Amino acid sequence: MESTLSATPHHHDAPPANTGLLVVAGILVAIPIVALMLVGTYAKDGPRLAGFPFFIWYQFLWVIICSALTYAAYRVVLKARPHRPMNPEGTEFLDEEDVR
Amino acid sequence: MTALVAAGPNTGVNGVGLVVLIIFFVIVAVAGFWAARWRRPDSMASLEEWGLGGRSFGTWITWFLLGGDLYTAYTFVAVPAAMFSAGAVSGFFAVPYTIVLYPIIFVFMSRLWSVSHRHGYVTPADFVHGRSGSRGLSLAVAVTGFLATMPYIALQLVGIQAVLEVAGVGGGGNVVAKDAPIFIAFLVLALYTYTSGLRAPAVIAFVKDTLIYLVIIVAVIYLPSKVGGWAHVFDAAQNKMQTTNPVTGKPTGSFIPPAGQYWAYATLALGSAMALFMYPHSVTATLSAKSRNTIRRNASILPAYSFLLGLLALLGWVAIAAGTKPIGLDGKPNPQLVVPQLFEDFFPSWFAGVAWAAIAIGALVPAAIMSIAASNTFTRNIYKAWIRPEASPSEEARVSKFTSLVVKAFALVFVLALDKTNALNFQLLGGIWILQTFPSVVFYLYTRWFHRWALLLGWAVGMGYGTVSAYNVINPATKAHFGGSLATIPGIGELGYIALTSFVINVVVAAVFTVVFRLVRAAEGLDETIPADYFADAGDPRVEKIDLGAHETTPSA
C-alpha cells in the first residue's frame, strides 16, 4: 500500500501479515480461474459419466472444487493476517499486549 | 406426484397453476410489508437502515440475499432459452462465469466492505469519491452503475411476463387487461420496497430460494425420466445443434464449443464474472453484511447456486428432448418461454404453479435490490454530491425511497411501451459498460498509482469502444444492430466478449495517461482513507464525518 500524499505514519499501516501464507491463498483462488479459462482442456464429449458429456460434468465438478479451494483460502487468510482491533480513535491497531 | 390434475390446453388459462401462483404472490407481499418490523431499527430514516438493512446481516441471511440478488429471474429464463436455441457457448458459459466469480470477489470484496464500514460508504461511487477525491470520476462510476441497472430491472419484468404468458394471462388485444397483472405485481413490489427497504428482499429471498431449490431438484430428477433419460437428452441436443440453420447456413448452435469459440467461451465467463460485482445491487447486498468475513465465507458457499444454475441451464436441453414448443400468446415462437412451458407440459398444474411462482418471485427479489441500489446511487452520488450537499441522512432516505418508485415506474414503461429488444440491447450494453468501472473501483482498493484523470479517460475510451463494437454486431437472421456481445479481438483475431476487450483498452489508456499526468504534475486528489481502513472489521470505530458538505471535502475534480 503506497500513499502519494506523504510518508505514511507507522500506525496507519496494515496489520502484520504472513506473506507466504497470503501467496498460498492467492494460488488457491487462482487455480479454478486458470483451470476454467483453458476451455480447450475440457471442450470434449467423452468420457461420458451417467450420460453426461465430459464438458458438462467436468464443469459441475469445478463448482465443488472451487468451493473447497475458496474455503481453504479463507482459512489460510485468517491465519495469515489475524484481525487486529483498532483503538477507539480509529487511528491505529492495538498491539498484541493491548488485545490481551 | 400423486394428484395428477389434468392440465388444460396449452393456449388457455391454467386455472390451478394460476391460483397457486397468486397465493404465493400474496404470501410474499405480506412478508415484504412485515419485513419493516423484522430486526426493527430505531429509525428507518437513513440509507444505512433503509438501503443497507443496518449493515446487520449474518452469513446465512447474506447467502440467501446474495443468491436471490445475483441469480435473477431473467437468468433463470434466459440461460435455458439460450441453451435451447443456440447451445453451450451462449448458455452454458454461465456456469464457469458463476464459478470464477467467487474467487474473484473473495480477493477484493472484503477490502471494499472494510473501507465502506469505516467511512459509511453505501455505493461503489461513494468509495471512488473518497479514495480519489475526484467528483468527476465518482460521477462517471455512479452514472454507469445507474444506467446499467435500469435495463436489468426491466428484464426482471420480462421474466415475470414469460411466466404469465405461459399461465395464459396477459393475452388479448386489450392493452389494459394485457398489462394489468404485471402492473399490479410491480405496484405491490414498489410499495413494500418503499416501506421496508432492503429488509423486504432479504425476507422474500428465503421464500424465493427455497422454492427455486425445491423446483429444480424435482425438475432434474423427474423430467429426464419422462423424456428418456439424460443420455437421450444430450443426444437430442447434439442433433439439434448440428442441424444447419436455413437462414445463416451455419450449424444451429454449439453442443460443445468448437476450437474457434474457446476464446468466446472463456472471455464471456471471465468478463461477466468481473463485471457482476461492479453493479450497485451486488455491492448493496455485500455491504449489508455485518462483518468483513461474512462475504469471504459466502464466497465459498454461494457456488451452491452455480450448481443450481447449471442444472437449470440443462433444462433448456431437456426441453429439446421433450419437444417443447415455446409459442407465445401472439402465436409466434419465443424461446424465453421454454422453461415455464416445459413445466406446464410435464408437471401437474398445482406444481407448475409452484414452479412459476419460483421464477416470478425470483424476479421480485433482484428487482427490489436493484431499485434500492440505483436509488442509493442517485441519492448519494448525484443528488447529494451535485445538487444538495447539505442533505441530512433522513433527507437522503426520503429521496432514495422516492427514487426507488421512479426507477420502477421507468422500468415498467421501458418494457411495456417500448419493444422488448430495446431492453435486451440495453442490457447487453450495460454489461459492457459496467465492467469499465472495474479499474476505478478495484484498483483503488489496492493502489493509488493510477491517476484519477487517467482512470476517467480510460473509462471514457472503454465505454466508447464497447458501445461502438456492440452496435456493429449484426444479427445474421434479422440484420439488426446489437446482435450479440462477441466481436473479433484486435490483435488476436478470435471472437471474444466485447466487455473484456474494452476493459483491456481501458486499462492500457489509464496506465499510459497516468504516466503522462505524473510527468506534467497534474494535481492529485485528496485520499480520505488510510491503509488501516481496508482491514477494519465490525466493532472497529467508524470514521466520524465532520459535516463540511461534499464541495469542501473535495478540493478539485
UniProtKB/TrEMBL annotation, chain B:
Key words of the record: Membrane, Transmembrane, Transmembrane helix, Transport
Pfam families associated with the record: SSF (PF00474)
High-level lineage: Bacteria, Bacillati, Actinomycetota, Actinomycetes, Micrococcales
Protein name: Sodium:solute symporter
Localization in the cell: Membrane
Family the UniProt entry places it in: Belongs to the sodium:solute symporter (SSF) (TC 2.A.21) family.
Segments crossing the lipid bilayer: 12-36, 57-77, 83-108, 137-155, 175-195, 202-223, 262-280, 301-322, 350-378, 399-418, 424-446, 453-474, 494-517
Membrane topology: Multi-pass membrane protein
Alphabetical list of InterPro entries matching this protein: Na/Glc_symporter_sf, Na/solute_symporter, Sodium:Solute_Symporter
GO cellular component terms listed in the entry, alphabetical order: plasma membrane
GO molecular function, one term: transmembrane transporter activity
